[in-house]
């Protein structure tokens, strides 16, 4: 079971890191107007806000995993 917890933790923290990169990229894209020709700025803002929400969810998941690891030790 310990291996599963470690893999879950690794996966959660990797996802958090990647979402951090994406959110920073979203900010730059919004500032420069690089949100594509097929979607409007408003639609891109919704996507960017969705990425921020997704980050909060993964941070919560990571916190639960870490608490679970402490309980098992």
Explain what this protein looks like in three dimensions:
This protein is mostly helical and 73 residues long. The protein has helices spanning 2-32, 41-72. It contains 2 helices and no strands. The longest helix has 32 residues, at 41-72.
- What is the H-and-E element order? HH
How does the overall form come out from the CA principal axes?
A: elongated
The share of residues in helices is: over 70%
Percent of sequence in beta strands: under 5%
Gyration radius, rounded: 16 Å
Low-confidence stretches: none
In whole angstroms, how far apart are the ends? 12 Å
Overall structural domain count: 1
> What is the number of E strands?
0
Q: Sketch the major β-sheet.
A: none
In DSSP terms, counting alpha (H) and pi (I) runs of 4 or more, how many helices?
2
Return the structural class. mainly alpha
Average pLDDT figure: 93
Short description:
This protein has one domain. The protein is 86% helix and 0% strand.
How do the strands and helices of this protein lay out in sequence?
Blueprint: H1 2-32, H2 41-72
Which features characterize this protein?
73 residues; mainly alpha; 2 helices
């Amino acid at each position: 079971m310990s291996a599963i917890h470690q893999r879950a933790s690794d996966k959660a923290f990797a996802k958090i890191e990647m979402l951090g990169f994406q959110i920073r990229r979203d900010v730059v894209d919004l500032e420069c107007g690089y949100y594509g020709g097929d979607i409007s700025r408003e639609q891109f803002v919704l996507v960017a806000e969705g990425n921020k929400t997704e980050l909060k969810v993964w941070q919560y998941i990571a916190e639960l995993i870490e608490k679970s690891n402490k309980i098992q030790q």
